[in-house]
Design brief:
The structure is a single chain. The protein is α/β, with parallel strands linked by helices and 326 residues long. It is built from 12 helices and 12 strands. The strands form 2 sheets. The chain has a 6-stranded parallel β-sheet with strand order 2-1-3-4-5-11, with helices on both faces. Strands 7-6-8-9-10-12 form a 6-stranded mixed β-sheet, with helices on both faces.
């Protein structure tokens, strides 16, 4: 399919169509969108090598993620990556997954020098993230998955973690239950910290029953819940900050006969139970849209960033909600 055919249909010049599809910035955003939609409808694929020569772009986005972080192994994270990759591919942009063992600046420095990517997505954000601090000293384009405590002048995509935990605590208190335990991860991330703080804030004058910071695994969730059940009085509600801990807690409650009936202990948690959970346990899930929606949203923001949108205009905070058991 030729550029001329697209230009004729849209009433534009071949030059305008060519410059829009090859990434030049002198084409109006609305016009560019019309051209890209028509090209996609017709199955037109610009020559990637030629475009790289003309624009100086690598046509690649790097995703920097510490390999020790638990979400990297989860199905939700994999689905998000798949949606991100598919969306970027529509624009002939490759996604490179870049392992960062020490979560340090070394990986970033190597990438910036190589010119291998047009932008970076930085995952698993920490409160005082040295990677974001280093990137803010450059003019390189990046988007953070999560916010840090650094000045918020960069592009980021996040979920309101405080609000989600507050919803779960508010629901628990509305059930007349005040012995509410927090079963949280021990990872150093802003997400984990803010989810825990949302729990504390929502309790107000109610004393926290118990708080734990453990490895984000089924085993740790099971063991910690067993310890609480051996003490007295037992919690009336357990809120977890990830799906793996929720499944471990659910198993402990079922084995102890605390999953249903008069002595049931309510279970709530971020993301609910894993999709491959072997248990059928009622849980109040704190939801945050689907991984597919998140992946597409991040991809759209990164493309706008590459096209020159100011980073401070690319800041998205999604609101969570509660999903009650059927």
């Amino acid at each position: 399919m030729s550029l001329k055919a697209i230009a004729t249909v849209l009433g534009l010049s071949v030059t305008t169509v060519s410059r829009a599809l090859n990434g030049y910035q002198d084409v109006a955003q609305e016009t560019r969108k019309r051209i890209e939609e028509e090209a996609q409808r017709r199955g037109y694929r610009p020559n990637a090598a030629a475009r790289r020569l003309k624009t100086g772009r690598a046509n690649a986005v790097g995703f920097v993620y510490p390999i020790g972080a638990s979400p990297l192994n989860g199905s939700d994270f994999s689905d998000m990556l798949l949606a991100l990759e598919h969306y970027l591919a529509r624009y002939d942009i490759n996604l490179l997954l870049l392992a960062d063992k020490q979560q340090s600046q070394a990986t970033l420095t190597r990438l910036l020098r190589s010119g291998a990517v047009d932008a970076l997505i930085v995952g698993h954000t920490t409160p005082e993230d040295s990677r974001l601090h280093a990137l803010l000293q450059t003019n390189f384009r990046f988007l953070a998955l999560g916010r840090s405590d650094l000045p918020s002048t960069y592009a980021w995509f996040d979920v309101d973690h405080l609000a989600g935990s507050q919803l779960a605590v508010g629901w628990s208190l509305a059930q007349g239950r005040q012995r509410i335990a927090w079963l949280g991860s021990n990872e150093n991330s802003t997400r984990v910290r803010d989810r825990r703080q949302g729990y504390l804030t929502a309790l107000g004058e109610v004393t926290p029953y118990a708080m734990a910071a453990v490895a984000p695994s089924r085993r740790a969730g099971y063991q910690q819940t067993r310890e609480w059940l051996a003490e007295g009085p037992v919690p009336e509600v357990i809120i977890t900050d990830c799906a793996a801990l929720a499944e471990g807690a659910a198993l402990a409650l079922q084995l102890a006969g605390r999953a249903a009936g008069e002595g049931a202990i309510l279970l709530a948690g971020w993301e609910g139970l894993p999709r491959d959970a072997i248990l059928d346990h009622p849980i109040v899930a704190i939801r945050q849209a689907t991984p597919h929606q998140a992946g597409e949203q991040v991809a759209e923001m990164v493309i706008r960033l590459i096209d020159g949108a100011p980073p401070e205009t690319l800041q998205t905070l999604w609101q969570p909600w509660l999903q009650l058991p059927a």
